[in-house]
Design goal:
alpha/beta, globular, 3-stranded mixed beta sheet, 7-stranded mixed beta sheet, 12 strands
Amino acid sequence: RNTAPLMPWLREQPRRLQVATDVDVAGMTPEALARYAGLLFPGHSEYVPPRLFWLVRRYRDGGGRIAMLSANGFYRHVTVAPDGRVVADPRPLRRRARSDRSLLGSAYITCCFAARPGYAVQRGARAAVPWLFRGTALRREALIGAAAVEVDGVGLYTPRTTVIVAAAPVTLQSGRRGRSTITFLPSRRGTGGVLN
């Protein structure tokens, strides 16, 4: 359901595309994954196998390119039992070494609000990630997309190198004001990183 609008566009692109589940990718070796030009998580990748977290982290740190197109990615670990049942760990990944923010740059902050505020391009974003804006006329404060249903934000365990590309004002479940963000976390080597 989440990927339905994206698939026709992907089919029209000149690049080869391989579709796999989170479990399929978690079963790959780091060497096999490193051969891919990028990873695209188009849907709701909230619950993932533990091995996928470390595999994606290694891929990112080695210069891999990752795009997360929905919020709340890598929030909890799940295991697939031999009988096919999926069992979720009830604890969110919010410990420093295993934090969703340490992997993706931003992470789940709230959901289920009525307004759909637009994301405004932030100061310095074009200079920090020029490839993202190449071929567009987007400038600071230009509105792109809208925050909807579940949103991510920066916070505890967000790496200092994370670039806030765009932000939208949201009301948190506590009633306080917050900021949903679109971020880019550069990899430690090369030109890769995570767009979330």
